[in-house]
Known about the structure:
The chain has one domain (2-64). It is 81% helix and 0% strand. It is built from four helices and no strands.
Amino acid sequence: SSEYSHLKVLLLQNSFMREVWKIVGKRSYLQKIHPLIISNLYLLAHKNSASSASVLLIASCEELGIPVTIHQ
Length: 72
């Protein structure tokens, strides 16, 4: 359980998000990684994993200025 809490804290840190975008680029992130995160929210049965995916989705949407919608 502490493993997932650590993951959520890591995902919330803007420095982690910016490092990912610097490596893959924001456009590539939006085209490839962002849809995977969204699909994981639908597929994950594990509550903590889904929670981590939602944290990443919300944080990245806020940082990139993308509206978070229920249809994502």
